[in-house]
Amino acid sequence: MRLLTYNTKKYLWLTSLLIVLSIPAFYFAVNSILLKATDSALKSQATLIPKYISEIKNPADLELWRKLDNNVEVALFDKNRFKKEPFTIHVINPETKDFQTYRYLQKETEIFGIKHTITFKVPLLEKKELLKSILIVQISLLLLIWVGFIIINSVSKNVWAPFNQIVDFLKSYELAKDKELTEEELEIDEFNDLKFAIKNLTERTKTSYQLQKEFTENAAHELQTPIAIIKSKLDLMLQDKSLSKNQSTLIDQIFYVLQKLSDLNKNLLFLTKLENQQFIFEDHVDGVATVSNVIENLNFFAEGKYQQLLFPRPEPVFFEGNQALVDQLVQNLMINAIQYSPKGSIINILLTHESLTFVNEGSKLDFNEERLFSRFSKTIEKDQKGNGLGLAICKKIALVHGFDISYRYQNSKHHFSVSFKQKNEA
Amino acid sequence: MILLQLMKVLIVEDETELAHSMLNYLQNQDYTCELAYDVEEAKEKLTLSDFECVILDIMLPFGSGFDLLKLLKESGNESRIIVISAKNSTDDKTRSLNIGADDYLAKPFHLAELSARVQSTIIKQGLVGSDSINYKKLSISLPLKRVNVAGIEIEITKTEFSLLLFLLLNKGKVVSKNAIAENLSSQSALYFDNFDIIHSHIKSLKKKLGIAGDYIKNVYNTGYNLS
To answer: How confident is residue B198, by pLDDT bands cut at 50, 70 and 90?
Structure first.
């Protein structure tokens, strides 16, 4: 539920409840005000009694007064029927059969020396009528409030627009991409605070990301020189005529790990560069030539394992991309295929307009396929021949070219496939 | 027989240790070598004498190697130039070759690789008057990629030819299996245990070469030596 709807609902409930409760309250309040007003009117009339009495000279005058003033009754004093305070009486109108309510006030007065009761009466407003008026007023008030809420609601949607913009920005936010919130001040303070807090946050994140990227690249780069020196010193050491077998083996072992270190470093540098988007994709890449070239470079590996690299009837494929990256992609997949297929097996490389696929024999993976393309996947490392970055690099290269890379196991064979179809065309 | 003694090589590299290693290895190959640690020193040495080959680092104090490369090309200097760079970026490679460098080698490299590059660059430019390399009964032709043993042509695979050439360009030196693997794969990253593979190629090569096969010796399983 939207905050706006939620708030409105709560407000509507509250106002409706208050209005319903206010109906009896109003009724009682108005009623008592009316009674008080009536009573004070009656009382002021009663103060006029001595004036009236002074005008009455004989019983005929009294009779005339009775006849002329319908709202006054004069009767002989009856102690039992006399009430000092004003009171209310319901009378049934014999003609309309309606209840009529009156307010009475009685006064005790002597006329011609005889005690009389003078009663003043005033018709009261019908309770039903009163209730009806209050209901009409309150219900129309309620309706007006609802209409008002609807109007405010539709106006408020515009007020929330900047908030929605901020949310959209966050949803599509990518660290590596340059996209920023606008500088303009917003009308609502809270949204303004939110916006500037987010702006601040993204800027800080971006800065630290930038620093980290630079650090990785610099660190990898700085490592190259010491590795190069060690490598050259070992090369020189190997030339020593008095080298014993033992020392020679040690050098060999150092070479082995140094190679690993150097590859790891190269790959880290490569990945960082890929992520920093430091490559230009304007080369006209010839698919057949690229694969043939990599086969030539790596054939000695396959030969050494008595494997055959078959590249039958490739279809000519050309695309815009980065030649060095595509070389690396094909090379990594090829090394992968050579490395993980048994001696004397055949590795098939299939190139069509849609895809490039490497098919090689091998036993089924004993880990999740999803981890295949992730960096330093631990499960792969157990049986480690590589440094766990080769396929991660492949995936990244495919990604930056808009290609899709996938793996499947079929007929006891591994299939690594790079699909050229641009993702956005699919 | 190539007369390397006549060949002068200038090494322009600011990293002292690496420069000394290169100097040491190449001097043992009978080149005459000189060192320069920065662009200014290199310019000075280049005006004083002619070098057949310049090994040029890109990141140098007081100016980049690219500037020196441009200067040499513009002034019509005929030295062969091999760029070495730690940046390992293809842009650097393309840029160097476009400006006019003869070869490009990414750090870290094996000295055997560097030596082979220097020598083949010199041979390719016809500076030694012959495009074939002869050693004892062995003779290999670079442009034709043919091998002769005592005058008889031997059928060998492309891999075996590269292997033999690499060993020959480093004759008298112990070349590690690692260096061989790097050379065969054109310096592309290799993630695996390549030793058995190298060994099986060597075995097959020795067999095909017959008597000349005995020139190649296995040094404690660490490397190979052609002598």
So the answer is: confident
